[in-house]
């Protein structure tokens, strides 16, 4: 999966605040994501993130 810094991930499950879009702040073995709704930042393993992604909105498209 080609995910890079600045992309927005639309996740299958919603964050507790109700938003399902996450901004990628860092990519590598883990992803550092920021919730588009409440601004909460968190780290998640790459395998778990890739499994839960519904679609990717590239930085240039938005």
Structure description:
The longest helix has 6 residues, at 46-51. The protein has one helix spanning 46-51, and strands at residues 8-11, 21-26, 30-35, 41-45, 53-57. The protein has a single domain, classed as SH3 type barrels. It contains 1 helix and 5 strands; from the N terminus they run ββββαβ. It has 62 residues and is mainly beta. A 5-stranded antiparallel sheet has the order 4-3-2-1-5. 11% of the residues are buried.
Question: Can you tag this structure with a few keywords?
Answer:
62 residues, mainly beta, 10% helix, SH3 type barrels
Q: Quick one: CATH class? A: Mainly Beta
Give me the strand/helix succession.
EEEEHE
The count of DSSP E runs of length 2 or more, i.e. the number of strands, is 5
At the fold tier of CATH, the topology name is SH3 type barrels
Mean pLDDT: 93
Figure out the total of helices: 1
Q: Give the domain tally.
A: 1
Brief summary of the model shown:
This protein is mainly beta. It has one helix spanning 46-51; strands at 8-11, 21-26, 30-35, 41-45, 53-57.
Provide the fold topology:
Layout lengths: L7 E4 L9 E6 L3 E6 L5 E5 H6 L1 E5 L5
Antiparallel strand pairs: 1-2, 1-5, 2-3, 3-4
């Amino acid at each position: 999966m080609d995910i890079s810094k600045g992309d927005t991930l639309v996740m299958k499950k919603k964050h507790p605040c109700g938003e399902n879009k996450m901004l990628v702040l860092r990519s590598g073995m883990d992803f550092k994501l920021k919730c588009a709704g409440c601004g909460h930042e968190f780290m998640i393993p790459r395998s778990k993130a890739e499994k839960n992604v519904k679609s990717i909105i590239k930085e240039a498209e938005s």
